[in-house]
Amino acid sequence: MKRSLLALSLCLGASAAHAQSVTSAYTEIDVRKECRHREGAVEEDYGDWRCKGYAGVPVWFGAGDQRMYVSFGKKAADEPAAGQTLGPFNDFYKGTIEWRLDGGKPFATIMRWNYKTPAEIDKNTVNGRALVVTRLPPGAVCHVGYVDARANSDANELAREIADKHARNFVCGKDKPVVLGKAGPELK
Questions:
Q1: Does 8 map to a domain?
Q2: Cα Rg of the chain, angstroms
Q3: Tens digits of per-residue pLDDT, 65-78?
Q4: How far apart are CA 156 and CA 162, in angstroms?
Q5: Residue 18: is its pLDDT beyond 70?
Q6: Cβ partners under 8 Å of residue 46, min gap 6
Q7: Domain annotation covers residue 168
Q8: Cβ neighbours, 10 Å, residue 95
Q9: CB within 8 A of 103, min separation 6: which ones?
Q10: What is the model's pLDDT at position 119?
Q11: Is residue 73 part of a domain?
């Protein structure tokens, strides 16, 4: 019995220590002002941008057909995330990247993307907001999950939950991205 309690307390202590080592760092970014841009080759290809992220982690942005793509790492443009976007017209040209850190090393990002709901397609307005959680290297870079930032008052906490519970062990191309909280059809 004493061994079981000792093993349980060691496991709980290790879990608590692991949870306590997860922190956040923040990077403000304005893609059009702070990043190197390469023009697109065809109509509706807006090109791509290369930026410096937290601790020198490269950030890649691509855009075309009124949608953006974001990836991370030395080979960011070749990662699965470079081909992932939200269904509706969307963008992330300016904002904050939250980097989830474990022992000071980034393992996931959380970004607040703007998107147009179906009622806004022909208008010059945006009213959708989604928090996109992306896993970082080692391993493939891809979307891990989504939170509807307008429908959930605790959207940031939900996105952190996705990052902290799923990002490190998420298998890109096999696992299905997690959607937490209330969500409109754009995120399902």
A1: no
A2: 18
A3: 999 999 999 999 99
A4: 10
A5: no
A6: 40, 62, 63, 64
A7: yes
A8: 16
A9: 21
A10: 65
A11: yes
Give the model's confidence band at 10: pLDDT under 50 very low, under 70 low, under 90 confident, else very high: very low
Q: What is the pTM of this model?
A: 0.86
Longest CA–CA span in the chain (Å) reads 70
Residue 29 corresponds to which amino acid? I
Amino acid making up residue 68: M
* 155 within 8 A of 130, measured Cβ to Cβ: no
Other CB atoms within 10 A of residue 17 CB: 9
Count of structural domains, the chain: 1
- Distance, CA of 20 to CA of 125 (rounded, Å): 40
| Ramachandran category for residue 155: left, alpha or beta (phi over 0 → left; psi -120 to 50 → alpha) | alpha
Instruction: Give the CA count within 13 Å in the CB-facing half-sphere of 128.
Output: 25
34 falls within a domain = yes
Write the secondary structure of the chain as one string of H (helix), E (strand) and C (coil).
CHHHHHHHHHHHHHHHHHHHHEEEEEEEEEHHHHCEEECCCCCCEEEEEEEECHHHCEEEEEEECCEEEEEECCCHHHCHHHHCCCCCCEECCEEEEEEEEECCEEEEEEEEEEECCHHHCCCCCCCEEEEEEEECCCCCCEEEEEEECCCCCCHHHHHHHHHHHHHHHCCCCCCCCEEECCCCHHHC
Domain of 51, in residue numbers = 22-187
